[in-house]
Specification:
alpha+beta, 121 residues, 6-stranded antiparallel beta sheet, 17% strand
Length: 121
């Protein structure tokens, strides 16, 4: 009986989130995933986390397209939701790229990463 309770507790627990090299938290699956809100982050940091999630966690090709589902601009306290499916995409990345694409590849998105350093006190 004790083992059934343990299995039930594990099944009810939320799926583990992926944490990028820059400490961004990404949760979801290949069809829809969200990069958790981080104060002061720009669109490129959210794309960076999405690219790393697709490249490293989902082990997909760097050419895999990623589409933005969250409207621009992001509301305060809201993370960015993206997908590898164009369904529901807003058609704008929020990143200055010429000509403006409706998506970014996972490899390009991951290349937008900046190192995050702790604030000096």
């Amino acid at each position: 009986m004790k083992y059934i309770a343990i299995v039930a507790a594990l099944a009810a627990a939320p799926a583990q989130a992926y944490i990028t090299k820059e400490s961004y938290v990404v949760s979801g699956d290949a069809q829809r995933f969200t990069v958790r809100y981080e104060p002061g982050s720009a669109a490129r940091q959210y794309w960076c986390a999405a690219g790393q999630f697709v490249d490293n966690h989902l082990a997909m090709l760097p050419t895999t397209p990623i589409y933005r589902l969250s409207p621009r601009p992001l509301a305060r306290g809201e993370g960015m939701t993206v997908s590898i499916s164009p369904e529901g995409a807003i058609g704008d990345t929020g990143v200055a790229v010429f000509p403006p694409p409706d998506h970014l590849s996972a490899g390009f998105a991951a290349s937008l990463c900046d190192a995050r350093y702790p604030l000096a006190r």
